[in-house]
Amino acid sequence: MNKNRLTAAVAVLAAATALTACSSGGGGGGATTASGSGASNCTNTIPKKDLPVVTMWGWYPNMQLVVDNFNKQNAEVQVCWTNVGQGSDEYDKFQTAISAGTGAPDVIMIEMDRIPTFQIQNALVDIKKYGFDAVKADYSEGAWKDVSVGDAVYGVPVDGGPMAMIYRKDIFEKYDITPPKTWAEYEEAAQKMKDAGGPAFGDFAANVSALTMALQIQKGAAPFAYDPAQQSSIGVKLNDQASKDVLDYWGRLVKKGLVGTQDQFTPEYISGVINGKYATYISAAWAPGYLTGAGVGKGEDTGTFAVAPLPQWDPANPVQVNWGGSAFSVTSQAKNPELAAKAAFGLYADKESLTHGWTNQIIFPLNLKALNDPEFVNLKVAFFGGQQANKEVYVPAANAYKGVTYSPFGQYYFDAMTKQVSALIEGSVTGAQAADRVQEDVAKYAKEQGFTVQ
């Protein structure tokens, strides 16, 4: 494989703006010193100054609390935390440190789908030999798969995004719609609502390629097959029948005028959600926190939202999928990987931090100590008018999720998908043609980076 070309390409990808599933936090910071000999530029105060110090970058809004809790409870190591930016801002700085061979923290918060991008550059450490067995049972098989590359584990899962269908109760009641259990029923309900003069049933946007990928996986697609044991080879399967079926499905709904096509996470889209322009929102378990932060459910639309399980293609064989999620990874620049792993395993793993995270809608926890906590499971979610959304929808979806295999060039794939979904929305290609073009584009790119495409 041409590693120089791949590294250069990764630098470009890391600079691309990417939606993160978590809200950004405040604060800032610069480069920190190596572990074991103290650290500078800590946002937090280190209480046990005689202990070795592990540096970390992270952007969770309650990171200060999380780090303080860890430091108070730990007698072996302390964490020096800084927030160098969210998502691509952090990735830019990390990529610079990788290229320079210095300047990276010992532990870094990273979105799960970005792990292979940095793993292929030998920038992350396999943490299996540093205490993995002691915490393995704290997370599901699907959560571990999302942070793994081949048989190696490159992160500790923290939050995830099991998917569901949020809907407007008032609109459903007005048009006598019951929550659809299948995608066929979803289309039928959308047609019924349109025929009655109702709003768009949902939204199919070009700027949420990770969502589109998840829906294709639900249908049976397996976009990538990658094992670092065969680092020069990658499976790229983006135009299989399942992928084509999903794009054709949404292309048909767009053509029939049943769903909108507004880019999501924009003021225009949020305004539409607030004003009842969309009857449903296909999204993840972090959506209530995001929507609340964006001003949804606080005015005239207060108490109008509910959530139902994600519609299925085959209700006899349901498949749960995920959108988003982050982890703590140990970087290859850590002077003491074992201590760094101890911090990664221990951060956001205590009850107070986890409870604060889900209570304030900062994270949807993947730690089973929180996920199975009766207080979390039975929570009456205010955004959903007191519905026990975790018990009814999100926890079962999280427990049934099996995980996916991400690629080392995920952002390029997402960009290629965005381009072709835009063409599908415009009507210049069919769903099947869009899938073929994504396949051609991404396979060509993979070959240019030195991969043999299977």
TrEMBL record:
<dbReference type="InterPro" id="IPR050490">
    <property type="entry name" value="Bact_solute-bd_prot1"/>
</dbReference>
<dbReference type="InterPro" id="IPR006059">
    <property type="entry name" value="SBP"/>
</dbReference>
<keyword id="KW-0813">Transport</keyword>
<keyword id="KW-0762">Sugar transport</keyword>
<keyword id="KW-0732">Signal</keyword>
<feature type="signal peptide">
    <location>
        <begin position="1"/>
        <end position="21"/>
    </location>
</feature>
<dbReference type="Pfam" id="PF01547">
    <property type="entry name" value="SBP_bac_1"/>
</dbReference>
<protein>
    <submittedName>
        <fullName>Multiple sugar transport system substrate-binding protein</fullName>
    </submittedName>
</protein>
